[in-house]
Amino acid sequence: MAESTRLVDLVSARIDRALDEQRDRLAAISPDLVSFDTYARDLLSGGKRFRALFCYWGWQSVAGRSGSFDPLSEGARQTTAEAIVTAAAALEVFHAAALVHDDIMDRSDTRRGRPAAHRRFESQHADSGWVGDRALYGTNAALLLGDMLLSLSDSVFDEALALLDPVRARIVRQEFHTMRLEVTAGQYLDIHEETAWPTVDDAEQLVRAQRVIVFKSAKYSVEAPLLIGALIAGASTSQLDGLRSFGLPLGVAYQLRDDMLGVFGDPEVTGKPAGDDLREGKRTVLVATARKSLPVGARQLLDELLGDPDLDDDQVQMLRATLTDSGAVSAVERSIERHVQRAKAALDAAPLTPSAREQLASLADTVSRRSA
Q: Pfam families, from UniProt (predicted)?
């Protein structure tokens, strides 16, 4: 626990340093860019740092360092320990960029208890008395903020790679590129399913929802950070295979829990409105599972209401009851547990350091049982 806490502190400090450097460059361009710095800092100041933790424990599962973790000490300044902190920070910045873009696509109003970035830019437009369409301004400005964070994540990741030998750096960079490609594809499939579902055979909808989970979230939230950390440490093929066998099912469990929270989560804890995924029309595994067992009338009503941004609290509660009564909620909870158990079984069989296996098993419980 102390080791993970130390890692989170170091990653947060590394992110702050990157933002400070970026702030100076933005200030040299124009004072009008101050909002970019403010909104980026606010977004990156929160979060659970799961991707950083998986990256670090992927590294430790191979490197097996003992003793206190201090990559900034004099004797470790140019080691892979410093590289892992920097790479973990880059993953968190990439995640922030994805959240900005995701909130635009989902038309979300809030993120982590604050207005989403596009809503903040929209409010800035209105409060400042500027001309033109404030919603369009908010969307366009947030798109650029997300792009800027993507650029920053690349810059920070390059600093991590500079600490590695060139051959290893190329391998790690390729994994980072693969992650970016897959999450982008997954995001597209997510929005595609929201509009294309009426043209898809009912029998295929669950399979398609599961594919979205894998590429939108499971790989980039858990599997890719693990592999990047392990590759920085020089992992063998068998170690990478073991981490994949652990990371993918756990990533699926992670996103299934996220889907449950998107419908049933407490807004005071999640920082998002109650039933947000219902208003956004998310065609999740939860929804696809419910549709398989609902009678025709109830299924038609679910399809009619899902995606209505004006759903009131009573309608949200009715949809929640429909999903529960269909048996989908229990089925998804069982699926989460099966995926976690599969991940842990793979972890036990993998040729990884015992201390890292213990920490990864603990993380598996944390991400699959979280309330936010």
A: polyprenyl_synt
Tally of domains within the chain: 1
pLDDT score recorded for residue 275: 87
DSSP annotation of 110 reads E
Nearest to 192 by CA among 206, 212, 166: 212
> What pLDDT is stored for residue 69 in this prediction?
56
Cα separation of 211 and 27, whole Å?
43
Q: Tally Cβ neighbours within 10 Å of residue 21.
A: 13
Predicted TM-score (pTM) of the model is 0.94
Contact yes or no for 136/125 (Cβ under 8 A): no
Neighbours of 245 (CB within 10 A): 18
Cα angle 366, 370, 372; round to 5 = 135
Q: Which domain holds residue 262?
A: 2-369
104 contacts: CB under 8 Å, gap ≥ 6: 116, 117, 118, 139, 142, 143, 146
Count Cβ atoms within 10 A of the Cβ of residue 365 and give its class: 0-12 exposed, 13-18 middle, 19 or more buried. Answer: exposed
**Exposure of 354 by Cβ count < 10 A (0-12 exposed, 13-18 middle, 19+ buried)?**
exposed
> What mean pLDDT comes out for the span 183-187?
96
- Residue-level pLDDT at 224: 98
- CB atoms under 10 Å from CB of 341, counted, come to 13
Q: Helices (DSSP H) in the chain: which residue ranges? A: 2-29, 34-44, 50-63, 80-106, 117-128, 134-161, 166-196, 202-213, 224-232, 237-264, 267-270, 276-280, 285-293, 296-305, 313-325, 328-349, 354-369
**What is the percent of the chain where pLDDT is above 70?**
96
pLDDT digits (tens, 9 = 90+) for 322-341: 999 999 999 999 999 999 99
CATH of the domain at 298: 1.10.600.10
| 283, two tokens | 């065609």
Can you say whether residue 256 is alpha, beta or left, with left for phi > 0 and alpha for psi between -120 and 50 degrees?
alpha
Tens of pLDDT, residue by residue over 130-148, are 999 999 999 999 999 999 9
Cβ neighbours for 220, distance < 8 A, ≥ 6 positions apart: 51, 98, 179, 182, 183, 186
